[in-house]
Design a protein that fits this description.
Elements: E1 11-16, H1 22-35, E2 40-44, H2 51-60, H3 68-78, H4 87-96, E3 100-104, H5 107-116, H6 121-125, E4 136-141, H7 144-149, H8 161-174, E5 180-183, H9 188-207
Parallel strand pairs: 1-3, 1-4, 2-3, 4-5
Helix pairs in contact: 1-9, 2-3, 3-5, 5-8
This protein binds 3'-fluoro-3'-deoxythymidine monophosphate (FDM).
GO molecular function, one term: dTMP kinase activity
Domain Thymidylate kinase-like: 14-194
Family: Belongs to the thymidylate kinase family.
């Protein structure tokens, strides 16, 4: 039988503190895999271009105030959600057609950042039910202190050492044995290589049609 009938793309999520290097690693990974001819797209949440995304962006930039529950629920709406604004069905059809998605932050960010403010973690997780389950979650591991030393905290609301310490603790609670951890104090080429190997492995597994697209 033709293996490719089953071929589907992989849903790959990168998580980590601010300044852990997610965005640059996602970009490098994406362009390397494009060069290799792998059908792949780079996504990020929250998408600040949507109308709710703009509310969030203004909140993150300290230009508006929202209470913690409201922000959490707004973010929930923007992250891969069914029907709003069609992210989930779009993601699903991309995966089914064989395109791999590299996603810079997913629902774990939502839970980590909101529970870091003291919201109940189960309350934070509840609306995440039914999202597409990633095939691979990679956590770029950096201590909050090291991240702060990297400089370039852009002055957004969450970019503060104390808060990032809390977020880091919440990520430790959230991550399970399936998460792959990369120490981002390694030289950047090594990080890139480790990441690429994990991702290529995952893509191969999904191409073999092992397992359906899961839901969380
Ligand atoms: N963030 C991101 C949340 O608080 N909840 C979420 O659900 C998501 C997806 O938004 F500080 C936070 C995490 C981070 C900010 O920053 C987005 P970047 O620099 O765009 O990743």
């Amino acid at each position: 039988s033709n293996e490719n009938n089953n071929a589907r793309g992989a849903l790959i999520v990168l998580e980590g503190l601010d300044r852990s290097g997610k965005t640059s690693q996602c970009r490098r990974l994406h362009s390397r895999l494009v060069e290799q001819g792998i059908p792949i797209e780079l996504w990020r949440f929250p998408d600040r271009k949507t109308c709710v995304g703009q509310m969030i962006s203004s909140y993150l930039a300290n230009k508006s105030q929202l209470d913690d529950q409201t922000v959490h629920l707004l973010l929930v709406l923007t992250v891969g959600r069914k029907g709003f604004p069609y992210f989930m069905s779009l993601m699903e059809s991309k995966l089914k057609s064989g395109t791999t998605l590299i996603v810079d932050r997913y629902s774990y960010s939502g839970v980590a950042f909101s529970s870091a403010k003291g919201l109940d973690i189960e309350w934070c997780k509840a609306p995440e039910r039914g999202l597409l389950a990633p095939d691979l979650v990679v956590y770029l591991d950096i201590s909050p202190e090291k991240a702060a030393e990297r400089g370039g905290y852009g002055g957004e609301r969450y970019e503060q050492l104390e808060f990032q310490r809390e977020v880091s603790q919440q990520y430790q609670i959230l991550r399970d044995g399936t998460w792959k951890i990369i120490d981002v104090c390694l030289p950047v080429e090594d990080i890139e290589k480790q990441l690429r190997e994990l991702v290529l492995d995952c893509i191969t597994t999904c191409q073999r049609g092992k397992g359906d697209i899961g839901s969380a």
